[in-house]
Write a structure and sequence with these properties.
- The protein has 180 residues and is of the alpha+beta class.
- The chain has four helices and eight strands; from the N terminus they run H-E-E-H-H-E-E-E-E-E-E-H.
- Strands 1-2-3-4-5 form a five-stranded antiparallel beta sheet.
- Helix 1 packs antiparallel against helix 2, helix 1 (7-23) runs parallel beside helix 3 (76-99) and helix 2 packs antiparallel against helix 3.
- 21% of the residues are buried.
Length: 180
Amino acid sequence: MGSLIFVVPMLGTPIVVAALESALLDDIAERHHRHHDTYRISNSLTHTMVILLLFMGILGSLLVWLCDVGAFDVGAPVVLGFFGSFICVVLALWIMLHRHEVATYDSYLRVRPLVGGMRTIRYEDITHMEWRGSSMAVGFDNIRVRARRQSRPVTIWGMLDLEQILSRINRFDALDRRRG
C-alpha cells in the first residue's frame, strides 16, 4: 500500500506537462517576422510525447495498484522503477525539445541548443558548416556550424526547416557538400 504514494507523481507529472503543453501551445513551428524568422520543433511531436506520458502514467499507476492487491507476482517497486524512469526520460526529452529554437536575423542567427544557453553566431564568422547524420535513425541530417570566437560548434537539428535556415544564412561557401 505504501507504493501507492509514488503513484501521485507518476500521474501528476503527465498532468502538469499536459497543462504546460496547453499553455505553451504555439500554432506553428515556423514564424516569419519582419526582422527575423523563428524555427522550433513541431507541435505534433511534443503533443505526441505528452500523450505518451499520460498513457504511461495511467498504465503504470494501474499496474502498481494491481501489484499491491496481489494480482501479479511482481513487486510494485519494480513496476514503479520502470514506469517512473520512463516518465523521467520522456519528460527530460520533452523539455529539451521545447527549448531548441533557431532565430535567423539579417546578419546573425541565435540558436538555443537542447542543452546550454543561447548562442549567437554572426554569419560572417561562420568558418565551416557540415552535415551530420542523426543518431536517432529518423532520417534527418543535422547541420553543425563552426564559427570564429566560438569555443564549440552548434548543431541545428534536421527536424527544423534546414533549407529555409540555410538560405537565410546564405553562406553556401562554408557548407560541406557531402551529405550525412
